[in-house]
Predict the structure of Pyruvate, phosphate dikinase.
Amino acid sequence: MSENKEPQVASEPQGQKFVYDFTEGNRNLKDLLGGKGANLAEMTNLGLPVPPGFTITTEACKVYLDSGEAPDALRDEVSAHLEALEQKMGKKLGQADNPLLVSVRSGAKFSMPGMMDTVLNIGLSDKSVTGLAQQAGGDERFAWDSYRRLIQMFGKTVLGVDGELFEEALEQAKAAKKVTVDTDLEAADLKKLVRKFKKIVSEQAGRDFPQDPREQMDLAINAVFDSWNTDRAKLYRRQERIPGDLGTAVNVCSMVFGNLGPDSGTGVAFTRDPASGHQGVYGDYLQNAQGEDVVAGIRNTVPLADLERIDKASYDQLMQIMETLETHYKDLCDIEFTIERGQLWMLQTRVGKRTAGAAFRIATQLVDQGLIDEAEALQRVNGAQLAQLMFPRFDEEAKTEKLGRGIAASPGAAVGKAVFDSYTAVKWSRSGEKVILIRRETNPDDLDGMIAAEGILTSRGGKTSHAAVVARGMGKTCVCGAEEIEVDTKRRRMTAPGGIVVEEGDVVSIDGSTGKVYLGEVPVVPSPVVEYFEGRMHAGADDADELVAAVHRIMAYADRVRRLRVRANADNAEDALRARRFGAQGIGLCRTEHMFLGERRGLVERLILADTDDEREEALGALLPLQKADFIELFESMDGLPVTVRLLDPPLHEFLPDITELSVRVALAESRKDANENDLRLLQAVHKLHEQNPMLGLRGVRLGLVIPGLFAMQVRAIAEAAAHRKNAKGDPRAEIMIPLVGTVQELEIVREEADQVIAEVEAATGTKLKLTIGTMIELPRAALTAGQIAEAAQFFSFGTNDLTQTVWGFSRDDVEASFFTAYLEKGIFGVSPFETIDRDGVGALVRSAVEAGRATRPDLKLGVCGEHGGDPESVHFFHEVGLDYVSCSPFRIPVARLEAGRAAAQSTGSDSR
């Protein structure tokens, strides 16, 4: 969905409600209240301790973004809800002697951690800061710390001041005091810092920091609306495929303070470990801090378990609330909380992001606990997560040089060159380098680099830091909080214990499953999940086997419920056997051109250079036994399962030498007067076959019609191989596929010849064969005339690679390198149409061809063999339109099986509802 919209005047519906109190909503109103607002309302309904507040709807945001102004009714609604909040709290926003302070936080329907804006402590001013100190029992340090935080966040978020200026001023203040942490600054130091911050705002923003609390709140609300369309938010949405027209809600919540001293603090908790899925006490806590300190990773936290020692009453209450929330949501919950002088407050909950392994473990755990059924467990995982679990891992037996160890935040084995800023990560990645992004801590501005990197390493922060949360969401390997490693971003280096220095460009390896960091490249070994699919590992007691057991259970259920069968794209017996181990139910695409490469290329050259019928028949005769032997092996490896063999498809020039290299070779030989006759004939043939656009030239069915005997030889090889297997008591199920058909007449001519050849083989071998003949639908005309083509075809296989090229007018090999990046960045594509099927264009042709083909031939078998056959989202589309099977590369087969099961379970659920 496009991120770029032309401004337009939005019509404001009469009587539309734009503001909801926390007591008015519930978790089912995420479209309207955003995830954060809906869940704050849900927790309020559950009677949990939530600070009072209200939510401004996503509809208000849409009006603002479309028209450039907030809805007329919004100000009055906010005023009414603010007045009610003030009465409830017994104090007024920004009042000098008894100020109410609020936070203004974003909250879209889908979680976008750190991508949009938040401002805390709204309502503080030169006058009310004294009143806040009085509220806190005379704690001036707390009041001035809160004030400097407001100016810093407001200046950066609302007024667009460079955040580094505030950070530099803060570092200077600590240096002057000779301290290293913020909490060691006293009230007098913070007063000076506030004056410095206000000066920075005045100089950089061209205006003074606003002293009117309502102006602060209104500007902050607009800033949160605007943050929906920041570059980082757009990039994150494209990465996560979140629609660009949803807008964000805004949550205005009365402030509670975790920075009131050692009996206060803030934290983030998970009801289960988001990295492994194991049950236990997981999270981070930071005394005397506000929430942004934990998420930003600026100060290193203590494990959540330490809270039991620090404040047992709050710890016990939190554990009870976490159990309540997980039972209520029936899923892993991610929780933000603050303790204000011994009083626990819940600031947020959401279904937590998790690693791929955790997703599978948690889904099966919840089934065992009776919270969800198998159908729901299947919806809790996806093919992208399964694909992550199939990536290799580091070899534990390899010799390594350990640099340090941090927190295992997001698993995986990542190797790359060390880079210390996002710009370099993107630049090097685009040049083909694999990189590891190394930072003290990441922030939303690092998103570009995080996407480009193989993995992320930080020296600060924990499992709930920005780096950890975003990395888990993207499936990136991440190690956080490697405190023993000193990261120097200015000098572009990091220093490990023992004085080991890693400069930018040096190769490092990070293990997101253990938190270990190594110097150099560590070798990898296959994933245990791949070993399971290949039959080399079974479920047992250790951690890897526990994961395998979870995968096994969910895959077994997916296989039971799915309607789509899954085949493999495989061209030889080795790939076919691997595919069968991975669960393939046949071969959906055997590319015969791959059988003509290597040593056999010379035979194809002889065919191309043949001047007479005898020469051509001699070349075809030499190719026939080789093709037959290949097919015998293939049919044996897939015995009892269908094997779809595509006759020769690519242009013949692909089997000849490169025209430039051959021209140079001939020219040099002629200059030496020792020209090779065969090279001269080859060059002549290359020139003869040269086409301006060979992908739209003499290829596919056109070859079979123009080169006598070519397709007949291939059909004979298939038929003789099938007869051989049948006579050997095998069960060959060959299907012959004619490529690039555009009209039924082409197919009829080739099929007539094929039927004749099959009859000859049956007579010669005395074996009755059941060979079906069909075609690829890969041209728009074929899709549009599918009803006619079905009269001569027993099956269709959609070649969505070529169909995408011809529908869009794209040459895949050219456009992906030339302008696809720009199209993705501009939001024209949410994802490449070669990666996920274009439902509106290519998909519409597939759907119409299915309907027309089945109208002509009700028993028409339908499949897809393009790259989309292994793409999770595309598999759901193929289920919807009624295909019989998808075909994909062997390693994508488990993904396709899983997604076919999820598609069936979803459609069953939709029907039942």
Residues 1-14 have pLDDT under 50 and may be disordered. The two ends are 27 Å apart (CA to CA). The CA atoms of residues 132 and 143 lie 6 Å apart. The chain has 36 helices and 33 strands.
